[in-house]
Amino acid sequence: MKESVVRVRTSAVIDPGRPGGAWAAELVLGEHRRVESGYECDASLERLQLLGVVTALECLTRSVPVQIEVTPSYYVRQGLTTEKPWQDKDLWDRLAAAAHGHKLTWKWPEIPFAELDETATKTLHDAPSVPSIGSVAAEFLADLRGRTSARTQAKYTLVLELLRSAAGRSENRRLTQVPASRLTDMLHEYFYILTHKMIPYATVTDLTNARTALPALLAWFADHGHLNAETAATNIASVRNRLDDEIALRRFLNALQEYVERTVAPPADDEDDDWTGRLLSDGYAKITAVTVETITFEDDDIENWSDCDAGSLIPSIIGPIGPIAVPQEVATLAHTGWRIRLTAIERSDGWHLEEIVNGEA
Fold this sequence. Notes:
With 361 residues, the chain is α+β, with helices and mostly antiparallel strands. It folds into 3 domains: 6-126, Nucleotidyltransferase, domain 5; 133-259, no CATH class; 265-360, no CATH class. The protein has helices spanning 45-58, 74-81, 89-99, 114-126, 133-145, 150-171, 187-197, 204-223, 229-263, 271-274, 315-318, 328-331, and strands spanning 6-14, 21-29, 32-40, 65-70, 103-107, 275-290, 294-298, 305-307, 321-325, 339-347, 350-360. The termini are far apart.
């Protein structure tokens, strides 16, 4: 006698104009059909696709063969065939538990399931509306327009542009799809983009403007009930401290870069004869010591190094980069612990800076 197979089909939808999305799952066994659906206020399309599968399997009360049909989902397919993604660990764990005892086969049809799409869409539209970072930020900007100058508004607009990039980079979502309560979760990625991904790099003015605008945005979210007041206050203090450090770092980088550009000499014909063979090429080096007129760096990342004599280096023999002579007005701006992205070369008379790229406070 042929064993009955449970057929599972799933669908998921999101609305670009609001946070979250919905899923729907259909289980069919012979003439019996069951449909489940649900909504999550803070979920990506990929999570919703996986959630539909998990929930359907959790409906099964005995071990049976199951054929699961998921409309093209690279995320689900990758998690099944290769290493599981780091995100949504809770769902991958639930999937492993729900799949235990069942013989699963997977199909990836190209055509969506129209009826399930309708069910998921209705579930989404029936769900309570959740304010998004995008919608609340739009209210914030509208509030500013009547009482601030265009120049002031531009400061806040740049903050929001970088937050949009942060949401896209970290979660592949728009700000209109991220709940307003998660604004503080965006800050880590925001700072990464602000200090490493802006082209050209953020200026002292950009950082100073952010120090004014970002705390004001956090405070506005808290005042209007979208953030816990204590959480907002803690993050405002953290943001100000972080940006104070970034402003100090940028002033140092500007001064050091100006000095290096002014003093780096054109390559001489006998330059190779003067080179010891050690070069840190466009890598990060930490400031380990500062005197009135010198800075010493150190780096233990072998991948950044080249050595024409030894062919390879180990950290214990790389040693310090420096001390390197700099003007007193540059040295006074430096802080130990900062990581500076630079190129430096060792010659017979000591280490010399060739290029300053960026830094990390």
